[in-house]
Design a protein that fits this description.
419 residues; alpha+beta; Rossmann fold; Phosphatase 2c, domain 1; six-stranded antiparallel β-sheet; five-stranded parallel β-sheet; 10 helices; 37% helix; 24% strand; rod-shaped; disordered N terminus; CheY-like_superfamily; Bact_Sigma-Reg; hydrolase; phosphoprotein
Amino acid sequence: MLVKSDTGPATDAIQRVLVVDDSRLQRHILISSLKKWGVEVIEAESGEQAMEICRTAPPDVVLSDWMMPGMSGLEFCRAFRALPNEGYVYFILLTSKSEKNDIAKGLDAGADDFLIKPVNSHELRARISAGARILSMQRELSEKNRVISETVDKLRKAHDAIDKDLIQARKIQESLVPELTRDFGASRVSLLLKPCGHIGGDLVGMFSPGGARIGFYCIDVSGHGITSAMMTAKLGGYLSSTYFDQNVAMEKRHESFYALRPPAEVARILNDRVTADAGVEEYFTMIYGTADLRSGHVDMVQAGHPHPLILRRDGSAAFLGDGGVPIGLLPDLDYDQFETVLAPGDRLLFYSDGFTECNLACGGMLDSDGFQKLVQSCDAGQTGQEFLDDLFWQLRQIMAPGQGMEDDVSATLFEYWGP
């Protein structure tokens, strides 16, 4: 440990100094001064001997004469810098040379500083102190880099664990939509769900209690990521296509069969449940419809979701609905219901704002009119899942280049072909 004193370097960054000089007298002069400052000193009479010492026990500072028989100080400096030392070593060349070209050669070889012979004790102390400051900063920087490296490694491991969990979470979320296409008699419901990350906040689904009645929906939970995905998992239970006793869109009648509740009533029930939970800050938009497969009559409720688009068999199209308030924002809300009638060959499309708010390569967003044109640009002969996949492909073609999806994209398509 370095002993601090008024005459020596005020630092503990330097503990071992290697003095290299072929002159015994010169080594004695340097060693005497260094030992007064409490520094451990090692000596070598040649560059070759110094290299052997440095290979086994590198010092903190090297004081080396330039002119020596055999390996010169310049050659020793180059060879020393080539060693795989873990920490930095401060190298001072002792020389009678003062020409700029000579100094440049020394710096190129790896020297940090120079002392002109004969060496003055006060100047030696100042050079050692300067080296101590540099070594102290270098070691502090190395320690910080070590801490940063360890932290990055921990973060990488944590990220890998989270990534693994998210992959599993995506599988669980995909299980909420067990089938993407289902035929109901001659008619069909098809679903599209494309999260912008591992998991998303959109949910689509369909169910039928039988009796030529079906329900289908498209939901978009506020925000992105884990909390939104957890909300979709909860909603998936509320609108289960498998467990009708848990599905709030159904009610049991006469203890023997299930019937579909009116869409407006379903929106009210969901709003009451979400707002009653004080720990839930998320809200969601929804479009939910029920269809009578015998008549083509469709009842719908719109809760802040984009307007559903009806696609007539003759090629015409129109938006439906008046907007409505998202579910979970305000308690004790009643929702309005609206209706339409489909003729055989007509289609009804629910979709999320991941379509209409997509950033385009030409600037701006797609918006509703652009979405209608995008839909009508798809091949009219495509149906079901093929139509939705083509619609999503068309969207990717007009997105801003080099930009990934910023929002989840989802859609529900109901194709009516009569009883």
